[in-house]
Amino acid sequence: MYSVNAPVPAEVKEVAADLRPALSEFARIRERREQTLLVKRVPADDRKQLRTAWQTAQDALAGAPVVEARVAEVDTFENPPNGSSPVVYLAVESPGLHGIHQRLCEVFDPVPVMEGGDDYDPHVTLARDADGFRGRRAVENVDGRQVGPVTWNIEELYLYDAERGERVDTLSLPA
């Protein structure tokens, strides 16, 4: 899977690290290097298609400004549309990021139930997959917890290859 992502600053990663002990009941806990902020999935089956898709994304984002983002709360997806559950995440507040997401949805079809209309919920995943009573208790320990707050400017976006876990290219947003 390829996507357009926004960098997660060190301060957000520190908030996530502080929460790690409360997430010990989860089967999958994201490491610092794995913490990303998904903006929009990009349809491409290979690197050749990816180059074309990335150019389309860059054209759609031409002139998109730097946007502010804020993390202040832990939230959960009890029944996410794909993957194991529950998912615990840092909720990201950013009207500007929603605007960037919408621009990308105009050139790439939104993924149903995840990206269209009000379905886009920007977040930084912390952990997922906790079963039974211990899992419910783990969710109760962090769901709705106030953190930070951490506010930052998103000054760049990058094309991300999830299979390889690497950035492919970067796009700077004008100040």
- Read across the widest sheet, the strand sequence of neighbours is 2-6-5-4-7
Largest sheet geometry: 5 strands, antiparallel
* Radius of gyration computed on alpha carbons: 16 Å
**What would you call the shape?**
globular
Average residue pLDDT: 90
Distance between the termini: 29 Å
Strand percentage: 25-35%
Structural class: alpha+beta
Q: How many β-strand stretches?
A: 9
The number of helical runs is 4
The SSE order reads EHEEHEEHEHEEE
Helix content: 25-40%
Low-confidence stretches: none
What can you tell me about this protein's structure?
With 175 residues, this protein is of the alpha+beta class. It is 27% helix and 34% strand. It has 4 helices and 9 strands, in the order βαββαββαβαβββ. The protein has a 5-stranded antiparallel beta sheet. Strands 3-1-8-9 form a 4-stranded antiparallel beta sheet, with helices on one face. Strand 8 and strand 9 form a beta hairpin. The longest helix has 14 residues. The mean pLDDT is 90.
Jot down its keywords.
175 residues, alpha+beta, five-stranded antiparallel β-sheet, four-stranded antiparallel β-sheet, 4 helices, 9 strands
Structure described in brief:
This protein is an alpha+beta fold and 175 residues long.
Layout of secondary structure:
Elements: E1 2-6, H1 10-19, E2 28-29, E3 37-42, H2 47-60, E4 67-77, E5 87-93, H3 95-107, E6 123-128, H4 132-142, E7 146-154, E8 156-161, E9 166-172
Antiparallel strand pairs: 1-3, 1-8, 2-6, 4-5, 4-7, 5-6, 8-9
GO molecular function: ligase activity
Organism: Halobacterium sp. NMX12-1
Keywords: Ligase
